[in-house]
Each structure stands twice: as C-alpha cells, then as structure tokens.
Amino acid sequence: MTATRLCRTFQTAPAAVPRDDSAKFLVSGLTSEGFQTPDWLVPDIEDGTAPSMKAEAVDNVVEHLPEHAPDFAGRVLPRVEWAYDDATFRERGREQIDRLATEVGDHLDGFVVPKVGRLDDVRDAAGAIAEAERDAGLADGVLDMAIILETAPARSDLREICAFAADSRLSALVFGPVDYTAELGGRALDGERPRWDGLLEALSNETSAAGVAAIGGPFDQLFCERAGVTYYNAAGYADQVEHEATIGIDGSWSLHPKQTSQANRIHMPRTDELTEALGKVEAFNEAKREGTGAVVVDGQMVDEATYKNFANTVETVRAVDETHPTQTAQYYEAGLLERALSVELRFN
Amino acid sequence: MTATRLCRTFQTAPAAVPRDDSAKFLVSGLTSEGFQTPDWLVPDIEDGTAPSMKAEAVDNVVEHLPEHAPDFAGRVLPRVEWAYDDATFRERGREQIDRLATEVGDHLDGFVVPKVGRLDDVRDAAGAIAEAERDAGLADGVLDMAIILETAPARSDLREICAFAADSRLSALVFGPVDYTAELGGRALDGERPRWDGLLEALSNETSAAGVAAIGGPFDQLFCERAGVTYYNAAGYADQVEHEATIGIDGSWSLHPKQTSQANRIHMPRTDELTEALGKVEAFNEAKREGTGAVVVDGQMVDEATYKNFANTVETVRAVDETHPTQTAQYYEAGLLERALSVELRFN
Amino acid sequence: MTATRLCRTFQTAPAAVPRDDSAKFLVSGLTSEGFQTPDWLVPDIEDGTAPSMKAEAVDNVVEHLPEHAPDFAGRVLPRVEWAYDDATFRERGREQIDRLATEVGDHLDGFVVPKVGRLDDVRDAAGAIAEAERDAGLADGVLDMAIILETAPARSDLREICAFAADSRLSALVFGPVDYTAELGGRALDGERPRWDGLLEALSNETSAAGVAAIGGPFDQLFCERAGVTYYNAAGYADQVEHEATIGIDGSWSLHPKQTSQANRIHMPRTDELTEALGKVEAFNEAKREGTGAVVVDGQMVDEATYKNFANTVETVRAVDETHPTQTAQYYEAGLLERALSVELRFN
Questions:
Q1: Which residues of A touch C200 (CB under 8 A)?
Q2: Which domains are delineated in chain B?
Q3: Highest-confidence range of A241-245, A309-313, C220-224, C284-288, by mean pLDDT?
C-alpha cells in the first residue's frame, strides 16, 4: 500500500434501503466519526440495494453527496451495476456512471465495478468511466476505478489485468468470494466457503507488482449467538483482517461501522512498527548530516529500498493523520506522533 | 458443471485383468446398477492394465461394448496410452484410438488421454482423435476428449489448454496426483502425498472459465484396518469428494463401485439445494405470468445469472433422472422430483 | 533434481565478517567435512555481509578460493549484489561479477543473483555473467546462474523465467521469503511469516517443467530456548526441509553446518528408496538379458519413464558418492552402496 492510495477500509453502504429514510446507511456512512470513518465509502447501487430501489439509490447518491461529501474525510466510490456476461447490466452500469459523473462528479473519487470478466471487459469498464468523465467535463483521469475480482475469467486474467492497472485509472482490486465461489460451482457443504488461498496470494503478488491496492472480501458473520445472547463477532472479523494484513492485502472490506473501526486499526502501523521506522529514519538523517559515507543503522545498511520501507510506514501514518486526525491522536502517544509528522523524509 | 456434461463420477475399470474372465471389471462396470452406475465409465487400457495384456484390453473393449454399451446409462471413454515425453506411447495411443474408433466408434463417447504435456501435445492428441473419427466415418466432433492433468508442462500450460478446450472437443480435465507428484520429484516422506491445493484451485477456475468439466484424482486407500478388521474407507473417500465439491470440482474419480455410489450422491443437488432452486424458479415463473416488471423472489432480484444458477441445479437433477432414473427415484421425495421434472425452465 | 545438478544444500556463508579473521566463515565452509560439506557453497557478498565490508568480502573470495576451492567437494557460487529496482546495486553486482570471473573464474561454478525482477532483468543478469565470462577468457557457458525469487515481478514472471532457464545458464531458482514478504507488504503480526504455499507449488512445477533446480528459503530460527537452556532447533529445520522434499523442492537453504548436515541427509534417497530402485533396475537388466519382450518387474511394466525415475535415484546416490564419498559410506550399508555404484544403468 502506498500512502497516496490509503485504503485500510472499503465500507459498502446500501445506497437505498426500504425505510422511510431510504438513504439512512448512505448518510450515516458519510457522517461517520473517529475510527468508524472508512478510508473508502462505497455507496452500493449493486447487490446491496434491492432491485426495485436501484433508481432511488442513484437519486440518493446524487442528493446527499453535495451536502456530505465535502466534509467526509475518506474517498467516495459508488459501486454500480456491471456483469461481463450480461449486456443489460453493463448498459445500466454505463447509465449510472454517466449520471453520477455528470451530476456529482466533483464529489466522487471514482467507481467500483463488479463482476468484470477478462481484460477486455475491464478495459470496457475503464472506457465507460473515461467517456463519462469527458462528457461531464471532468479532468482526465480524475476518477479512479476499482474492480471486484469475483469471476473465473477475471481470475484467469489477473496478471494481465494488473499489468493494465499499472498504467491506467484502475487502482484497486477487491475480492468478491461469494459470487466467485458460486461461479466456480463451489458448494458450502459444511456451511463454510473455501478461503481461496491461491487467489489471495496471487492477488497480493500481482497488485504489489503493479503498485495498486488489494482489498479482501466481506465477512458476513457479523454476529454470533451463545446461550441466548447475540454479540458482535469481533474475533472472527479481526482474524480475517489480520490474515489479510499478514499476506500483504492492503485493506479490508467492511459491512458495518464496528468492522470499519477494527480494520482501520489493524491496517495502521502499530506503535512498535512506527517506533522502529522512526528510529531508522532519524538515525539515517543524523548519519547523513554527519557526512558518513555508507549509512549504517544498528548494523544494517539503510539503502534506498530499506529506506523506502521505513519511510512508507511513516507516510502511512501521515496520510491517516491528514484525513483522520482523531484516529492518529487516539492511537499513538503524542510524542511519537509528533516525531512521525515532523521527521524529514528524503533519501538523497 | 453443466447438465449436458454430467460427470459426477469418472470410474476407471481395467480393460483386462489376469483372470480367466479378463474382462470381468469392464463388464461389471458396463452392467452396474442404481447408484453404482458411473456417469463416465473409463475402460482403462493404460496404467490399470498390465503391460502384457494391453492387446487383450483393446480386444475386450471391442468385444464387449457392442453388447453392453447400448444399455449402459453413462458415457464410455476408454483411457488409451500416451506420454508427452515418449513417442512410443503416443504411437500406441494413436493405434488404440484408431482401432476403437473404427471398430466400436458408435458405442464410444470419446477418449481419455493421459500424461499430456504442453498445449501442442494436447492439440496433437485432439488431432489423433479427429483423424480416427474421419477414418471411421463418424460425424465430426462426436468423440469427446478428456485429459489427465499429471505433468509439469501441462500444469504450466493449464490456462492455455483450457482456452483451447473452450473451443474444441476437449471437454474435461482430470487430476492425476500420483504421476504428477513423481514428475515434480515429490517424496512421500511421511506416507502422505501433498494435496496440491494450488493446482486444484487453478483447475476449478480455468475449467469454469472455459465451460468444461473438472474431475478430482483417485483415492486409493480403499480399505482401512482396525484391530484386525478390514473395512471399506467410506469416510476417507467422502471427505475427499466433499472437499472437491466445496471448491467447485465437478466430479470425482472412482476406483470401486462403492466409491461410485458415494460420489454420485455427493455430487447431486441435495434435497435442500433442489428445494431452494425450485422455489426460486417457480416464484419467478409466477411473477413473470403476473407481468410484474422486475422479478424479485424473497427480496432477491432474480436476474439472468441468478436464474441460470437455480435452473442449472434443476437441470442437473433432470440430467441424472434422464440417465439414471433409479438414482433420482431413490434420492428425492416423489413430489419434489415431479416438480423438478415439470417446472418450466425459460428465462425470457 | 537431476544428478548432474546435485544441490541438496545451498549454504550461504558471509564472505566477510567483523572479526580479526574476516574470512572465517568463508574458509570454514570451504574446508567443511563429511555431512557438513554443502553441495553448493555460496560466499555471500550481499545481505550476509555488512555494507562497510563489501570490498573486503570480494577480496576474501579472491584470496581464499585458489587455496581451498580445488579440494572443496561442492560447487562455489558467490552471491553478488543486484536489485531490479536500483541501478546502483546492479552496477556493483556487475563489478563484483567481473572481478571474480577475471581473478578466480577457474575456481567458480557460477553466481547467485538476488532481487531480480521480470524476465528482462533476469536476462540482464545472465548477460552480465556472459560478458564477464568472455572478458575473463572462460569457456562459453561454464558459469551457471541461480536467482533468488523474492520480488513480486519475478513471481509474476515465474513461468517465463523458467522457460528462459530451460535454454540458458540459469540453472536454479531459490526462494527468498523475507524480502518477498516485505515487498508484498506482508506484516508478521503474530511473529510468523506466511509460508507462501502457492509460490512454492508453482516453483516446484515450473522448475520441473524446465529441468532446473528449485531451492527452499532460509530457516532462521536456528536455536530454541527452554527453561534457560538454548539448543539447536533440529526439529524445526528438519520439518521445513521434509516439507520441501515432499512437494518436490530439490534442495534446501542452509545457514549453519548443522543445517547442512541435516538437509544433505534428508535430500538423499533413503535406504528403502534406494533398495527399491536397485531392485527394479536389476530385475529390468535381468529381464533384458533373458530377452523377454515387455519388461515387467513385480507386475509393473518398467517403461522408459519408470526406468528413468529409478535410474535417477541410483544416479543421485552416485553423484553424492562421487563428490562426498564419506557421506555415502556413512549413510548406506556397504553392500547396498556397492550395488548402486556397479549396476548397469542403460535403458536400451
């Protein structure tokens, strides 16, 4: 994860729900506070919104973004409809992209496109956004694209899709395990879906090679029950998010403010990680000032690659602080945070 | 798995064994009944038949197919000899394919080709079948091909081989773990072969993207012993087959009628799966009759993709019923089966 | 593993350490005895040598190879500096390769190049060795190349890199899990790195398809502590090496003579494996002498592929015996070894 593409949390919120206030979850996402504010808020016009409410979902986004997006700390990328194997969905997706870019393009950071197929289909989706961008008079490339990786052909073309991402508006790949398992004909015989370890490993590798973000799939066992008491499944979700962090998946899908609150924390550098990174960077800066030739810190040479890793940890903290200062203030001791914000980050 | 390529069970039967009746297992496979009838019977002229009996194995297939194949409910695809790295085997394989196509081509559904290598070798095998088909005066493309995925070059070319399959007579890929492990130099130091999870996941994905069938490898620990009593290892085989079903492998390899009997059941839609699918399809049909615009069933929009999934479950039951009515009659409650056989399956 | 590229053990030894005798570990590696002699000794000029000692590390290799290499049973391939994303490292690597090829080229078997990227970068590294070889007046292709697989782009191009290996001086791929995990952004949240099973499986497959060697990553938990006593972690390392052998990884990375001693044994055919291979080969030879047509041993036809597997086991023992006779003498009963050394190994 590079700091410029901070996406610890990818929170979907249905853009319309069957209530008096159909934009309830959209607005609560846009006005969330503290650790409940996601890095990416994804107003969901696709699977999270009932079929009869799609039009109202788009209306809700058009209506509420101008009011709330300017004060929202994260980025906003609606998920539109799309399907590599169904032209009707692609047509609807193009209309949704067009209307949103035209009417609230200034308040959008991009679009999330689900159920893409092979590279050609991904190119088509990117083309639809480019066209909408032009028609809306927006600057070229200002709208990002994320795709949901949830079909067999997209998994088959993962390497080519990531090569395309390295050089296009495609900036994140998000795993969609439910549709993926259905498309492969997998059956939850014992109630458990496979984790698809091979896919996750390849996703982490190819997105790293392309310099784009990788996001894990949703965790839908939000609540547990034991002896008649229902409680939030904090342990189950944290286990999944920690596993994702371990294998280099940059961010996690959230379905609930509590999940956002956990994943925002887990994907932040921990105090010990930040302390080590700052120590290395500060010692490097000191050695540079003293004109020592090779810069060795604690017996380890700090070369450009090593420096970049430590600097990246500090820059991630800065990126979080810039957009979510209440999170950094709450998470780090004041002196440590101050050092992170003030240290010089320049290799040469 | 599409219903047209029903392959819950891929049962190999040695085409000649060293007994007075050398065709014993071939004939018992061809005359099996009930749940012991496999979807594919594979008379094995390759590794299952002793080297000295290859000619007799081909003779047995030529002799017994005309009598038993017409009444056999499944498909018949003999496994011939082949090896990407040994021209002698390929020459023998071509002769076996030629002779069988010429003499009993009308009773065959295709051939299983083992130890293929890179895409070029797979094309060669397909070409050998095309040539035999022509020479035998059979209709173009009437003979299918399945390959055993059991060499490093074939695994390396898996994606390209499946792209070829999407547009050729190649209609199934079957995993061959014993030869595969040997070719990679794997050693069973603790008596256990690796499961090769990465290969199985890729096999499920690429065959799904190509629309062809994926079949798991054989399970050879047929029997267990405990305290002096030997018994059929029903649990071990069912565990493997259920794992295959979980990750979207369409069918399982069987070495024994009892294994066939288990895998036929595990790869059938369960009663709860069929009940759900029928409920959705029937409600969709009802809504369509009433002229409701968007068709929503239980709050879920039934789009073409969703409909296809449910319809596919029903079609699988119909395909089983068409070829193995004793299996469906035994497995499903009569009313449920009747609904599956009579419901209208048409999206538009 | 083919016998001609015997690499059970890939032992790195820092080429210069901050001691009075800075070549201590280099020389002890070159003068190791018995099972502590690795098949490949890798004088480490890269990460194993402190930045301030790189020049001294190259000097040490130049100084000590002429004295010790002629009597060293294994092969010697120094690890030089390199990085696909940093031209400074590549420049230093070229200088190290040039100087070593020119001054001690006759005592070298090749070079180990770390942190390579996509295929183009691997070609560049091979080109640097080719150029140095020419400039040093060495025979074309006499110097092998091994690469460390430890970056996202190299993993992405693994298949293409192995295809290149099949036809070039690239003869081994070695896994580098520490840098690989860092590059993917993986975090050791619970102190454990992922094992990267998908990568290892692909590495075993692609190197097998290309006919080159695959080597596992280092195991750095050399010692354990319990109740105040520190002891060598023999079990942890053996577990990793056995897992590697199980999935067809040909050899293991060693950081210590004790690790070399274990991995040399684990990657040798066991007595039961050698006994079986010899039995098959001898029975085959007997049958051939008697002029039996098809050669069947214990009911199994010994075809060329089967014969090659058994012959390869015997040839591995011969290769070990040729270079490390004290190891074979200690490991095998004398009669068995004598049979392995004297049996005729010729299929036709």
A1: none
A2: 3-266 (3.20.20.60), 271-342 (no CATH)
A3: A241-245
Interface A:B, Cβ pairs < 8 A: 73
Number of alpha helices (DSSP H) and beta strands (DSSP E) in chain C:
14, 12
Section B33-48 average pLDDT: 96
- Is C88 buried (19+), middle (13-18) or exposed (0-12) by CB count in 10 A? exposed
User: Which of the residues B187, B193, B196 would you substitute to probe the C interface, choosing the one with the greatest number of C C-beta atoms within 10 Å?
Assistant: B187
Structure tokens, A97? 């992209």
CB A98 within 8 A of CB A134: no
pLDDT at B2 over 60: no
Out of B202, B246, B304, the one facing A194 most closely (by C-beta) is B246
Q: Strand order of the sheet with strand A252-254?
A: A75-76, A40-44, A9-14, A252-254
- The answer to whether the CB atoms of A86 and B246 lie below 8 A apart is no
Q: Which residue has the tokens 């004290």?
A: C326
pLDDT digits (tens, 9 = 90+) for C90-126: 999 999 999 999 999 999 999 999 999 999 999 999 9
Cβ <8 Å between C52 and A205: no
pLDDT tens digits for range B305-344: 678 788 889 999 999 999 999 999 999 999 999 999 999 9
pLDDT in tens, B77-129: 999 999 999 999 999 999 999 999 999 999 999 999 999 999 999 999 999 99
- Complex-level ipTM: 0.92
Of A52, A153, A196, the CB nearest to B294: A52
Element (H, E) at A42: strand A40-44
Provide the token pair at C167.
């036809």
Nearest to C246 among B86, B152, B194 (CB): B194
Who among B50, B185, B199 is closest to C208 (CB)? B185
Q: Residue B197: its chain A contacts at CB < 8 A?
A: 197-198
Q: Nearest chain B Cα to A185, which residue? A: B248
Q: Which residues from A are below 8 Å from C56, CB to CB?
A: none
Element (H, E) at A277: helix A271-289
Go through chain B and tell me how many residues it has.
348
Contact B304 A86 (CB under 8 A): yes
Q: What is the DSSP letter of A336?
A: H
Tokens of B39: 């979807």
Q: Please tell me the distance from the alpha carbon of residue A15 to that of residue A22, in angstroms, as a whole number.
A: 8
In chain C, the DSSP E strands lie at 9-14, 40-44, 75-76, 110-113, 144-149, 170-175, 213-215, 223-226, 229-232, 252-254, 296-297, 300-301
